[in-house]
Amino acid sequence: MDERGYKENLRRMILEMAQKELESYVSQKGVQKYFEGNVDKIINENIKKVSQGIGNNKTYLRVLKKGSHQENASSVVKVIKSEDLFKSKNELIKFAKHLGINANMKSSYNQTLRKVANHIYSNKDEYSKRYFSYKRGSDEYILEPERIKTDLIESYRSKTRNDMRSIARLLDLKVEDDDSAEEIRKKVINYIMKEKLVKK
Q1: Is a pLDDT exceeding 60 seen at residue 2?
Q2: Which of 8, 25, 41, 162 shows a CA-CA span of 20 to 30 A to 184?
Q3: Has this prediction a pTM greater than 0.90?
């Protein structure tokens, strides 16, 4: 798949995930327009975070993504062993603990390796859905669509909250710091309705 294909697949996936979560919002067209206009920016921010991430974490993500596409646990073992980081028993144990596997220095390197490989293979459906391989030029990034979707929705909520706060300020309405956009919108509507009734 070329770079454009990766980008389109990821964009489509994120937009579908985000849209499902906000189906209850009043302005569906507004939400969709915001998402479509900002999804690339959020993807780029996530790529930046991943590329600036701790080296070990990048390796963990790469192994989980590649491992989730293997046909058996033995193939997962090969994926793990192909990483220089996991030539060290200590680093392999850290990875095992990161995955929630009970591992310690008493176990041999091979015992720990098998435990990790079996865990990844047993959870391969979950890992294959959780991580997305994104290629840009010669670089590959392992991204989490769920996290990108959450960031996109949060940026929309933050924007609408700030927009509603601006409207409330114009109307001299008092709003609380922790009021959501929807709560402020209700206050604004109530205020406008009261004003109209007073004028009548």
Answers
A1: no
A2: 41
A3: no
